[in-house]
Amino acid sequence: LATTNVAEKRAVRALKKRLQDRLYQRKHRAKREQMLHSLEHDVQALQSKIARLYRALHRRKVAAANAEEQRRQQQQFPDGSLQDHAKRVVVQFFHVYQSGYSLSLAGLQERFLRSVLATDVEGVDLRGADAFVQQWRLCDQHFALYILEPQVWKAQDVGHSVMVEVEAMIYLRFHRQTIGMLFPSLKTGQVEPELVLPLVTGTTAVAATYTFVVDRTGHVSSLLVSVQLLETLRRVLGSLENVVQLTDGCRIALGSGTITIA
């Protein structure tokens, strides 16, 4: 009987222990699930906060952009002073770029260009200030010499804007290493390299017309460039036939001088 009682007590203790273990495990699981739920809630709250911050940041950016645009629109010039301002802008343009692209002054040149051009400025085959900046960088890559020399100026009011037309000469010398990128016919063998020696060793003068339209905000809304590159090449290369062969598939616009390769 004593042995039976001992066995029963042991069984009871074992059962109690199992029950306690199960209870502990349940409590532990419940606590862990509660912590997990709390963490999930914290993560969701954090994600919501991040989303709100991003939305607020976007709103501030939009508001800042709108404020800047409004400031530019409100920067109106009286009719008389607008023409004076337009002339100053054009004079500065030719002063900054008279000696072509300068590596040491590149930052200054690009900042000036962005400061005077409207964000959506239009050209003959370009649009946007970034496109004009990129075009100026390409001039450095493909021309060993690029000098702008204004000669005749004419300014007139056009509605609420001022148009300044400048007859100019551009003095060019192509880079020997990159001229083949502008005229692929040199690489394919359609044209002998000797034909373009005057373009890479001498100075080629090209007549050009720059037309600036400055709006009431004081920014250049249109900058049209017309160059007589076709006539210049005919004169330098000796015949129109040579020009046709050289310019087959060329990547520089003969009417505007725009380079279409990076």
Write a short abstract of this structure.
The chain is an alpha+beta fold and 262 residues long. It has helices at residues 2-74, 79-97, 106-116, 129-142, 179-182, 185-188, 197-201, 229-237, 240-246; strands spanning 117-122, 143-158, 161-174, 204-214, 220-227. The chain folds into two domains: 1-74; 77-246, Nuclear Transport Factor 2, Chain: A.
Provide an overview of this structure.
There is one protein chain. With 262 residues, this protein is an alpha+beta fold. It has two domains: 1-74; 77-246, Nuclear Transport Factor 2, Chain: A, CATH 3.10.450. It has helices spanning 2-74, 79-97, 106-116, 129-142, 179-182, 185-188, 197-201, 229-237, 240-246, and strands at 117-122, 143-158, 161-174, 204-214, 220-227. Strand 2 (143-158) and strand 3 (161-174) form a beta hairpin. Helix 2 runs antiparallel to helix 3. The longest helix has 73 residues, at 2-74. The protein is elongated and about 125 Å long. 17% of the residues are buried. The mean pLDDT is 86.
